[in-house]
Design a protein that fits this description.
With about 180 residues, this protein is of the alpha+beta class. It has one domain: Immunoglobulin-like. Helices cover about 20% and strands about 40% of the residues. The strands form two sheets. Strands 1, 5, 9, 10, 11 and 12 form a six-stranded mixed β-sheet that branches. Strands 2, 3, 4, 6, 7 and 8 form a six-stranded antiparallel β-sheet that branches. A hairpin with a 4-residue loop joins strand 2 and strand 3. The protein starts with a helix and ends with a helix.
């Protein structure tokens, strides 16, 4: 029993914890805002770094709700490794396509790769995942939960096409001409 507890403590220290308050960051770090929208209860969604190491596994997501997680990470490429639905069998999981679910963290900013939308059929035998730009909702969540961080750093959509809405909104709020 003691071996299992030591293993759990070791694993928990290796994982990145969601950010509780605005912290100082190193020059090679940035923030990743992970948003997950699912139609099925999820046991976990695994976030991996470029070395295939698990960074974190947000757990226990309820269906029909958008879940947000903010991580302070080293700049680099991250991706969704596995998606595990809450179903009768704990062994059921899906591997996501790295190309579709790759996320980039740029140092010195809040990186939003788009909301990860996960759709699973009723028997959890197949799934579909894609990202959609819901920056307005993500900005609202950030301002509600991390307003001090939003004042200090730029919020940037890191998706397939550029989106300057966050920068436009910041300029308007500061009273300068966009």
């Amino acid at each position: 029993m003691g071996k299992w507890i030591c293993l759990l403590v070791l694993l928990s220290t290796c994982m990145a914890a969601p950010v509780a308050v605005a912290e100082s960051i190193a020059p090679d770090e940035g923030y990743l805002l992970l948003a997950v929208d699912t139609n099925f209860d999820l046991r976990r969604v695994e976030v991996r770094n470029n070395h295939w190491n698990t960074v974190d596994s947000p757990r226990d997501m309820t269906a029909n709700k958008v879940h947000y997680y903010l991580y302070k990470l080293k700049a680099g490429t991250y991706w969704i490794g596995q998606i595990q639905p809450e179903y009768k069998s704990n062994r059921r999981y899906f591997r996501s396509w790295r190309e579709v679910n790759e996320m980039r963290v740029v140092a010195g900013q809040i990186n939003y790769p788009g909301t990860l939308i996960i759709r699973i059929n009723d028997y959890a035998t197949s799934f579909q995942s894609f990202r959609h730009n819901r920056a307005t909702q993500a900005l609202h969540w950030m301002e509600s939960h991390h307003a001090d961080l939003m004042e200090q750093m730029d919020f940037k959509f890191e998706g397939a096409a550029p989106d300057g809405f966050a920068q436009y909104l910041k300029q308007v709020r500061q009273g300068s001409e966009p």
